[in-house]
Amino acid sequence: MNANGKKRILIYGINYAPELTGIGKYTAELAAWLASHEHDVNVITAHPYYPDWEVHPSHKGKWWTREVLDGVKVFRCPLYVPKNVTSIKRILHEFSFLLGILPWWFMTLFQKKFDVVLCISPPFHIGILPLLYAKIRGVRFINHIQDLQVDVAKDLGMIKNRHFLKLMFALEKAIFDWGGQVSTISEGMQRKIQAKGIATSKVILFPNWVDSGLICPLSRELSLRKEFGINNDDKVVLYSGNLGEKQGLEIIIEVAKLYKEQSNIHFVICGSGGGRDKLIKSAKELGLSNVKFYPLQPYENLSALLAMADIHLVLQKKSASDLVMPSKLTGILAAAGCVIVSAVPGTTLHDVITNHRMGILIEPENVAALAQGIETALHEDLNILRNNARAYAQKYLTKNTIIGNFETNLLATA
């Protein structure tokens, strides 16, 4: 601990800035916030590759490197990044990261010790080395769960070998048991972690956040409609974010087919990920000129991107219920967006949307339900939902409040 009572913090995570979306964005914002509050923050991570699954040009060909970003000391390592992501290739990808961080792990072992080690999961097994460091040096270990990765792999059928799944669950449980606190991003995920036999006292809530000053409602004229060639009088249904397996995004193409003859309704898919090429191919085969694809936009353009939409989509498969919490929702709420959410009753996502009346809920993986939700959003006055969304973001999702509460937790124990 520093003389002024601030902490030396070591963060492990496979994703980090300059990645624009997903876990890396939140980890980088957390680290930068802590550094700006005089903590000594070090991060061990990979070279940026997500969500394109290709190492960014700025880091391509690099091995073990050091840099300083927003006051944070960042130590990067090489890793295997597959072009076509399969379950086996993803396992190899994640284990290559575990091997890549070994030099940095040995370096930290013989330096002045850190006060807190924070591990960001997934990958779930990244916690092995940080936990070993914490035990050897006698320091605090916090395992932060953004996705319950093993449950997702099982429930989505990504891994079917029951013996391998049993081994993965056992390793996950061991990391939970031997570590200190476990933090996660929703109450539903808290319940699922506790159901694994983890004491309630060990599991803390640390939700994702949004900067509601930077992400705010904008007029249609200030949106990206002009840049994207869309008339202000047309209607836009927007999905923005990771194009992956958990979302079940094929449903967007199926619904867009129903609006094929309505030239004033555009389905805009803005993002990258393993499912992008498949979606583009499907839209092309069906001759859907009403579906438009764009790359991820820089964070400074996010408000303008969100402002172009009449309807936002937050979609996930039934089997992913309460195993993940869509991070894209925070920005949509802060931008006062009208959001259609696919969620199962009893999950945190369903409860939050219902209790605060800030979106249209539909059954996951149901084309007819999504089409009906879009019709509702297109023809009803939904200003109350938009206003409630913005109010919720300002009250519950502000960055300073959420990270400030987490910092209090960090400072509570030496």
UniProtKB/TrEMBL annotation:
<dbReference type="Pfam" id="PF13579">
    <property type="entry name" value="Glyco_trans_4_4"/>
</dbReference>
<dbReference type="InterPro" id="IPR001296">
    <property type="entry name" value="Glyco_trans_1"/>
</dbReference>
<dbReference type="InterPro" id="IPR028098">
    <property type="entry name" value="Glyco_trans_4-like_N"/>
</dbReference>
<dbReference type="GO" id="GO:0016757">
    <property type="term" value="F:glycosyltransferase activity"/>
</dbReference>
<protein>
    <submittedName>
        <fullName>Colanic acid biosynthesis glycosyl transferase WcaI</fullName>
    </submittedName>
</protein>
<dbReference type="Pfam" id="PF00534">
    <property type="entry name" value="Glycos_transf_1"/>
</dbReference>
<feature type="domain" description="Glycosyl transferase family 1">
    <location>
        <begin position="224"/>
        <end position="395"/>
    </location>
</feature>
<feature type="domain" description="Glycosyltransferase subfamily 4-like N-terminal">
    <location>
        <begin position="21"/>
        <end position="209"/>
    </location>
</feature>
<keyword id="KW-0808">Transferase</keyword>
